[in-house]
Amino acid sequence: MTSDAKPIRVYKASAGSGKTFTLAAEFIANLLNDFHPDDNAHRHQLAITFTKKATNEMKERILQYLFELAYVDDLTKVGILGAVRDRLMQPLGDQQIRDRARQTLHQILHGYDHFRVMTIDSFSSRCSRLWLMISDFPPVFAWN
């Protein structure tokens, strides 16, 4: 592991326990931690879920929370703020959070195809296709 490598986090919890909130807070904190105006941090993040419904909900929540962090006048009224702040690697002021959230939201919306929240099936399929492309293994079946 290099010095800037981050650990892989796995969350196991039952239905209704706040997994989506926790994962969204973690995802957003990582985006804000890795923020650079000339780089799209969302291209370096991955969240894996089990269902398409969970994937869509996760994407919607991340975008909703980023919007709230970027545009709600009083950040103390943004429910995700405390959870995101707890996960930041260095303290950020309200204006820094607002600016980073606004620019990150803009980067995601203009590079949505690189917003990587996907099902485990989609991730496995993508890995398999990439492995076949980089290996000289002759394909014996077609991907649909």
Coarse shape: globular
What integer value in Å does the Rg equal?
Answer: 17 Å
- What is the percentage of strand-forming residues? under 5%
How many beta-strand segments? 2
What structural class do the secondary elements suggest? mainly alpha
What is the count of helical runs?
Answer: 5
Percent of residues in helices: 40-55%
**What is the straight-line distance between the termini?**
35 Å
User: Which regions are unreliable across 5 or more consecutive residues at pLDDT < 50?
Assistant: none
User: Biggest sheet: strands side by side, in what order?
Assistant: 1-2
Encode the helix/strand succession as letters: HEHHHEH
Main pleated sheet: 2 strands, parallel
Average of pLDDT: 85
Overview of the molecule:
The protein is mostly helical and 144 residues long. 51% of the residues lie in helices and 4% in strands. It has 5 helices and 2 strands, in the order αβαααβα. A two-stranded parallel sheet has the order 1-2. The longest helix is centred in the middle third of the chain and has 20 residues, at 52-71. The radius of gyration is 17 Å and the shape is globular. The mean pLDDT is 85.
Strand and helix map with partners:
Elements: H1 19-33, E1 47-49, H2 52-71, H3 81-87, H4 94-110, E2 117-119, H5 120-134
Parallel strand pairs: 1-2
Summary, kept brief:
The chain has helices at residues 19-33, 52-71, 81-87, 94-110, 120-134, and strands at residues 47-49, 117-119. With 144 residues, it is mainly α.
